[in-house]
Amino acid sequence: MGYSELKFPDNSLFLVTGGAGFIGSNLCEAILKMGYRVRCLDDLSTGKQENVDLFLDNPNYEFIKGDIKDLDVCMKACEGVDYVLNQAAWGSVPRSIEIPLFYCANNIQGTLNMLYTLPVLLFMVMSPICRKRKEGKEIFCHLMLSANVRMKNGQSSIRSIMD
Known about the structure:
Elements (H helix, E strand, L loop, with lengths): L12 E5 L4 H12 L3 E6 L6 H5 L7 E5 L5 H8 L4 E4 L6 H6 L1 H18 L2 E9 L2 E4 L2 E4 L2 E9 L4 E7 L1
Parallel strand pairs: 1-2, 1-4, 2-3
Antiparallel strand pairs: 5-8, 6-7, 8-9
Helix pairs in contact: 3-5
């Protein structure tokens, strides 16, 4: 199944953080082509204004220039949002070693800010439980899908589904 076959409720609003970067802007484009609304949050520190300008004429696109390190900006950006695609991060392992505190603030604290703003957090991990080789072919015995849902009231629920 390709991404264009995914269906979401009509009028869904997607927040794409880092939406002015290469990956984020491609996500914005794909979501808009599918007919949904996009709110882009980017501080343009590594993203490009021209990636934002591509969509400014689209009435389903909104751009917020802001930083995920600012919790108030994250809260504002998440208002009314149905889905969050967090792409806001600085890359480069060598540079992260040179300025680790900045990377910690931007990539870790910024992501935590985005997670904190959501009313329900859903973390999903898919992993093969076992693999066997049979007649030269690799066979997955089953797949485990684990989801940890944490609600703002502090309650948590863990589910595992075997396939």
